[in-house]
Each structure stands twice: as C-alpha cells, then as structure tokens.
Amino acid sequence: MMVNKISSYTFGFVYKSLVITEFELRKLRHDFTELITRALQPALWLLIFGQVFAKSGAINTGSLPYLDFIAPGILAQSVLFIAIFFGINAIWERDLGIVQKFLVSPTPRGALVLGKGLSAGIRSLSQAVIVFAISAFLGVKINWNPIAILNVIVIVILAATLFATVSLIIACIVKTRERFMGVGQVLTMPLFFASNAIYPTSMMPDWLKTLSHCNPLTYVVDALRTFMVVGSSSTIGLATDYAVLTVSTIILVAIAARLYPRLAI
Asked: What share of the chain is helix, strand, coil (3-state, %, to 5)?
C-alpha cells in the first residue's frame, strides 16, 4: 500500500511538473524573437573571441585546438545567461496575479519550481543547436555520436534547470525587477570567469582553482566538453559531474519550493 502511494505521488509530481513546463513553453508561440536574439551572443563569442585567441596562441589547451576547447564553454555560458535571468518572469507573473493562482492550486510547490526550471532547459536547447552549427562551420571536431548528443541534451537541460532554480530563489528574495537584474548581472560574470569555460583550470591561481571547484558551471563545461568534442576527456570525472549537477538541482528545487510562496507577499 505504501509503495502504491509513493508511486502515485511520484507520477503525479512528474506529470504536474511537465504540465507547468508545457505552460511555460507556450509563451514562445507569441515571441520567437527571444530565441533569435539569444543566438547572437554565442555567435559573437565563437566568431570573434574564439578565433582571435585561437590564432594568438595565448592560451595553452594541450592537444585540443582552442576553438574545440572553447565551444563547449560558450554553450555552457549561453545556458547560464538564459537561465540566470529566468526568475524575472516569476516577478512579472507575481505582478499579473499568476503566482497567486499557482499558489492556490493543488500543484505541489516543488512541481511548480521544477516545471519552470525544465522549461528553461528546453529553451536552452536552441542555443545548443546554434553553437553546434557555428562550431561545425568553424571546423570544430564535433562528436556526432547519438549517445554523446543525448548526453549533451541531458546536461544542457539539467544545467539550465539548476541555474533557473537559482534565479527563482533570487526572485523570491529580492522581489523587484530592478534588484533582480542587479543581482543577476553580478552573478553571471564571476560564475563564467571562475570556471573552465574559456581557459583550463591549470592556468588559474590556487585561490581561483578552489572557487572553480565550487562552481557548478565548471562541472557543466567539463561534461559538455567530454561529450561534445572529439579527442576531449573529462578532467574531473563524468560521474562526479552528473552527481554534482543532479544533487545541486534537487537541493535548489527544494529550497525554491520553500521560498516560492514568499514571492506573492
């Protein structure tokens, strides 16, 4: 009997999370320009920054060409930039009265949070398509193995869910769009530059290496680089990458679910 109750609750939780995801994705029907404008940033980083530094030889990436090294990092950056500002939508929903409607519904708070996070993950897949296309055009040795592509998709969705949940937590705390934008801008650059996205951690001073190991984006980049580029291997360990991202997401979803009602106050 207990097993049946747990199974029923789990199925209901997953189903309601996916309903919220579908609800969030419906917003794209009204404005696809968001996906187009988001594509400009990774294009600029790969076409300008990546090619310039690849020719300069200023950064030693071992046997891996610099463009091959940076492509997964730019994908991770794109996912981060989309997800970290996702919480502002929750503030808009609060102002429109949508959050209050969610809170009086029977949907578990955790399903609300997870559904919103997953929608950010699915949105981020458009960035993966853009980065893969530009990388292939520039001659990056992309790993087209279906299993590798599937892992990239899973990592992108998981990473976007994690950072979107962080964003939602920030929105629940600051509650205003102006403060949210300030906090979001403060977070993105340190997360990006204190990771292995555009240079190896071996180049970092010891204090920055320590910060890098506490930075979830480092694990995202390590996993993406392993699966996305031919000739690359994990420097941390794929099991560790997946474990850190999964456990962090679960903890953050639980925290955001606890804080979500504060958004309506």
From this structure: 80, 0, 20
Q: What's the Cα-to-Cα distance from 11 to each of 5, 8, 182, 250, 258, rounded to whole Å?
A: 10, 5, 38, 17, 21
DSSP-derived secondary structure letter, 32: T
For residue 30, report the phi and psi dihedrals to the nearest 5 degrees: -90, -15
Count: domains in the chain: 1
- Give residue 229's pLDDT: 93
14-57 tens-digit pLDDT: 777 777 777 777 766 655 566 666 667 787 888 887 788 777 77
pLDDT of residue 114: 87
Amino acid at 83: A
Parent domain of 75: 2-55+62-264
Pull the structure tokens for residue 148. 């590798």
How far apart CA 122 and CA 59 sit, in angstroms, is 33
Residue 57 CA: distances (Å) to CA of 52, 63, 71, 197, 261: 9, 12, 16, 17, 51
Mean pLDDT for the stretch of residues 208-227? 93
Q: What is the pLDDT of residue 27?
A: 67
d(C-alpha 10, C-alpha 184), whole Å = 33
pLDDT at 199 over 80: yes
The structure tokens listed for 245 are 């991202």
Compute φ and ψ for 229, nearest 5 degrees. -115, 130
Which residue shows structure tokens 């071992």? 62
Q: What is the spatial distance between Cα 80 and Cα 78, in angstroms, rounded to a whole number?
A: 5
